[in-house]
Amino acid sequence: MIRKNVTRHLTKFSLLVLATLLVAAPGQAQSYTILVWGDSLSSAYRIPVDQGWVALLGERVSDRNIKVVNGSIPGEITYGGVERISQALASNNPDLLVLALGSNDGLQGLDVGQMRDNLTSMIQTARNADTEVLLLGMMIPPNYGKQYANSFHNVYLELAETYKIELVPFFLEPVALDFDLIQPDGYHPKAIAQPLLLDHVWPALNAMIPK
Known about the structure:
Elements: H1 2-24, E1 32-38, H2 53-60, E2 66-70, H3 78-92, E3 96-100, H4 103-107, H5 112-128, E4 132-136, H6 146-163, E5 166-168, H7 194-206
Helix pairs in contact: 2-7, 3-5, 5-6
């Protein structure tokens, strides 16, 4: 009986100490998760994965207790992003969603209104999960027609204004017109271009994440 009482008191004491450490231990910052939700522009297409801009982002924030998850899939359109996002949010519980979809919608000439609806759905789904959103805007070549190209790009500007979310107006801006930085397909950035993409996104992203 004495042994049982001693064991019981020691167990209670141990649990109390553990609870105190979990609540009050200094320097034990909660981890912060970034989920990058894009297509081949963010999936390290035809380059080593560790050289892609998302992997480089992970390296840059590695000393800040920040986890970077890359949910980007080559060829993804906004409809596919909508179909997958709820499960990804539930699985990763991100604090920040970097939404980098839409380029394939534009290149396939898909309906701009539907693209807007899909991006809107992902923004709202993220917000419902208490996840902040950074939107990476896209542009398409003028050979798709000036009206379509303008309408396409304006979707990002309008969504950022409507939902008061941070926006990088044109993700590929630092590399788009430099063909020395683009792969032979004329569209995907090379490995040497990835640090430039990260640096382009970094100011907006860095303002949103823990210091």
